[in-house]
Amino acid sequence: MTTRIFNTPEVQDFLRLASGLKQDGGNPRTKEIIHRILSDLFKTIEDLNITSDEYWAGVAYINQLGTRSEAGLLSPGLGLDRYFDMRMDAEDAALGVTDGTPRTIEGPLYVAGAPVEQGFARLDDGSDKQGHTLIMHGTVYAADGKPVSGATVEVWHANTKGFYSHFDPTGEQQPFNMRRTIVTDADGRYKFQSIVPMGYGCPPDGPTQALLNQLGRHGNRPAHIHFFVTADGHRKLTTQINIDGDPLVYDDFAYATRDGLVPPLVEQTDEARIKEEGLTGPFS
Ligand code: MBD
Ligand code: FE
């Protein structure tokens, strides 16, 4: 079938009608966006000769995404989240901003309201017996290179099964396990103890994985830790680090891996750590 009607005045007028552009009221920005998306969809249906069976399979798919709350999972899987970051990077580059910790995507598993700690936090509650101790510390710097005291570092990550608290299908984790908000000390420093996470995998029976299968792609992320860094008068940074050595460290289904976000790991015995740190606290 080669019928082409998209460019006829009837169809073009119908698109304006269905997008509300032919009447007052409503939200102009919504109308503009819906008109464009609907036009692109109509054109795609014509160009690819999409059948009504294919179309209704797509409608059912969107309902499945909603039922399983996976819209926010498909989004990074299709690279949309990364695309927004690419756009922000380009905007920054145009303004001459090219230094600082790279941004990367938030992902769908942040939960607000984690316990707040000063300077140091233990993130895990000790219940994950497979856990290998992980310690990370650093300093929050402003754009001018000066440390920022009182900045907020929100940290969240998965357990050794790749599951996040609040989203753990096993129901094994307490709320806010491996989620903390750390306020930087007088020198702008933060530190935390937790356990090395495992990479995340899309629910194998879910709609995101089903589409990735059709694309011949996997739905796995390397082990990673998420951060929001905020301070009054400064732009928020959303970023992550990957755990070096994970086989997927440069093969992330969500495209969040970036140069500069795979820090070197140092393996240390307990004895060496006690000797290095003393027994008097996190910053001794
Ligand atoms: C995650 O843990 C994640 O960070 C992203 C981006 C997508 C799915 C799960
Ligand atoms: Fe994650």
UniProtKB/TrEMBL annotation:
InterPro entries in the record: Catechol_dOase_N, Cchol_dOase_prob, Intradiol_dOase_C, Intradiol_dOase_core, Intradiol_RC_Dioxygenase
NCBIfam families, A to Z: catechol_proteo
Alphabetical list of PANTHER family matching this protein: DIOXYGENASE, PUTATIVE (AFU_ORTHOLOGUE AFUA_2G02910)-RELATED, INTRADIOL RING-CLEAVAGE DIOXYGENASES DOMAIN-CONTAINING PROTEIN-RELATED
Catalytic reactions of this protein: catechol + O2 = cis,cis-muconate + 2 H(+)
Keyword list, A-Z: Aromatic hydrocarbons catabolism, Dioxygenase, Iron, Metal-binding, Oxidoreductase
Protein name, per record: catechol 1,2-dioxygenase
Pathway terms, separated by semicolons: Aromatic compound metabolism; beta-ketoadipate pathway; 5-oxo-4,5-dihydro-2-furylacetate from catechol: step 1/3
